[in-house]
Amino acid sequence: MKFAGSCNIQLQRDSFSISAEFDIPSSGVLGIYGHSGSGKTTLLRCIAGLEKNVQGEIIFNDTHWLDQKNQLPTQQRKIGYIFQESRLFCHLNVEDNLNYGARRNPAGTSDNTLLQRNHLLQLLNIEHLLNRMPDNLSGGEKQRVAIARALLKNPQLLLMDEPLAALDNQRKREILPFLERLHDELNIPMLYVSHSLEEVSRLCDYMLVMEQGRIRFKGDLHETLVSPDSPLSREENAAAIIECNVLEQHTDYQLSTVESQHGTRLKVQGILEMNRHIRLRILATDICLCNEPPCDSSILNVIAGNVSCIVAEKGAGILLQVDASGDIFLVRISRMAYDTLNISPGKAVYLQIKTVEVN
Amino acid sequence: MELFTGLDPLILTFKLAAVTTLILLIIGTPIAWWLANTRLRIKPMIEAIVALPIVLPPTVMGFYLLLLLSPEGALGSMWVSMTGSSLTFTFTGLVVASILYSFPFVVQPLQTAFESVGKDIMEAAHTLGASATDAFFTVAVPLAKRGFLTATVLGFAHTLGEFGVVLMVGGNIPGETRVISIAIYDHVETLEYAEAHKLSAILLGFAFISMLSMYYINHKQAKRT
């Protein structure tokens, strides 16, 4: 992993404090995950220069945004910031909102090949809204305009503070694909603050897990989701992510076969575009574990693997990590099943995967 | 000629109101912005001082202003040494008095408008590359335009109706300090009811039309947003 910047900051407030040290990747999405009150939004605001009295050092693309002597004001940091609420200027129409940042930051440097304006408007599906006033837009449309506005400023770092949190589920589903496409098409790093495990699993490549103003865990997404040291593997809806490409389509069954980078093949619902890269999210509770390969089962996805370790024991349940030729799965079984099946680290097992969520 | 001399106070009054409102908008805007954004503990103190002219009897204000502006007073003596002329019983003195008298009527609507603009939208402007001044003029001012309209109308109309303060500080010098309300009082004293009627009706009409247009425009904008 290459880095574009580093951040080592402290912030002291009456009721809480923030202390965080991490590197900003040179591309891809760094998720900042935590429960409400964990300080993740404040951390993002510190990076943007929106908080006063921040101590420490922020260096990005060789520019000192913060050091002992200086604090570069927000308007001079090459950031795009997407807030939870769209924060559009309601006295300007959509086009003037989009131009606001673009006009103040002319794309002079050619090393920054951000998306073309027209392509971006198309991607976010807002071309037809240019003459509308923000008050006449739906929540989802507003947020898409806000995303375009931040990107048209030509930033070198995109900061997103729970951009979906203020939207209902339907609107979330409307925006998430746009964010995923941005992830695929943008070559600038992004920081994505969220308290939704689902969102970070879909969008992020690297993760910081925040608790009470401190970083509890940092690593790449897969590591953060399945590692026994990571708080994320202890969450109720713990899940593993498998990166796959679409290999085959079965039109008569409305299924597709996908293959992970380690060669694991899985069947998923729906006809997916060939060779498309997809992320499968498989919940620990959606996998059954068998000692022998099951025969005559209605479950399509059965794969062989080895128990690599016990991630957590909670109540009657045990969470296991299973390595299937390089792909790591999380499996939750009962303590009773653990004893009856004689499970121990290293044991060869078969996984029956009940549901596969395609992101 | 008779008609012209009769309308003399009218022209003077409008001139006074226009100059006062203009100066008030210039000095009131930064003060209102500061009040809307400060977290300092002296804020209630400043707000109370700004609001004083609303509750103070004009004669009380006029009395203190007379002391302050007279050639022996703190401000008046300074003015005399700077310009050679007195502040009391002059048009300039009236402007100074009117600024203080109409201060809350300009600052308060602006402060309310700036408060409703909010920090969030200003932060958004900064993240898009706007400096504090840039964001103020391109975001805060346009969003607060109803506040500016209210402040202008109230400041202007309130200055028009000034009587007690003018009488104390300005007296009754034709063409210099004889504003419309003083002229009306004079006409009534000398039983020239026709003259009094003419000026009163003009003032009443103007006051009503300005209030009506202010509420009309604000209502239309409120419906639009």
Any overview of this molecule?
The complex is a heterodimer of chains A (359) and B (225). Chain A has helices at residues 40-48, 94-104, 117-123, 139-152, 169-185, 197-203, 221-226, 335-340, and strands at 3-12, 17-25, 29-33, 55-60, 63-66, 79-82, 157-161, 190-194, 206-211, 214-220, 239-250, 255-260, 265-269, 277-283, 287-290, 301-314, 317-324, 327-334, 348-353, 357-358. Chain A has 359 residues and is an alpha+beta fold. Chain A is built from eight helices and 20 strands. Chain B is mainly alpha-helical and 225 residues long. In chain B, helix 6 (119-127) crosses helix 7 and helix 10 (180-189) runs antiparallel to helix 11. Chain B is globular, with a radius of gyration of 20 Å. Chain B starts with a helix and ends with a helix. Classes of the chains: A alpha+beta (359), B mainly alpha (225). Chains A and B meet through strand 6 and helix 2 of A and helix 6 and helix 7 of B.
Distance between the termini of chain B: 50 Å
Largest sheet of chain B: none
Mean pLDDT of chain A: 89
Question: Which two chains form the greatest contact, residue counts included?
Answer: A-B, 25 and 18 residues
Percent strand of chain A equals 35-45%
Quick summary:
The complex is a heterodimer of chains A (359) and B (225). With 359 residues, chain A is an alpha+beta fold. Chain A has helices spanning 40-48, 94-104, 117-123, 139-152, 169-185, 197-203, 221-226, 335-340, and strands spanning 3-12, 17-25, 29-33, 55-60, 63-66, 79-82, 157-161, 190-194, 206-211, 214-220, 239-250, 255-260, 265-269, 277-283, 287-290, 301-314, 317-324, 327-334, 348-353, 357-358.
Please specify the SSE layout and strand pairing.
The complex is a heterodimer of chains A (about 350) and B (about 220).
Chain A: E1 3-12, E2 17-25, E3 29-33, H1 40-48, E4 55-60, E5 63-66, E6 79-82, H2 94-104, H3 117-123, H4 139-152, E7 157-161, H5 169-185, E8 190-194, H6 197-203, E9 206-211, E10 214-220, H7 221-226, E11 239-250, E12 255-260, E13 265-269, E14 277-283, E15 287-290, E16 301-314, E17 317-324, E18 327-334, H8 335-340, E19 348-353, E20 357-358
Parallel strand pairs in A: 3-8, 3-9, 6-7, 7-8
Antiparallel strand pairs in A: 1-2, 1-4, 4-5, 9-10, 11-12, 11-14, 12-13, 14-20, 15-19, 16-17, 16-19, 17-18
Chain B: H1 2-37, H2 43-55, H3 58-69, H4 74-83, H5 91-117, H6 119-127, H7 132-143, H8 145-160, H9 164-169, H10 180-189, H11 193-224
Helix pairs in contact in B: 1-5, 1-8, 1-10, 2-5, 5-8, 6-7, 8-11, 10-11
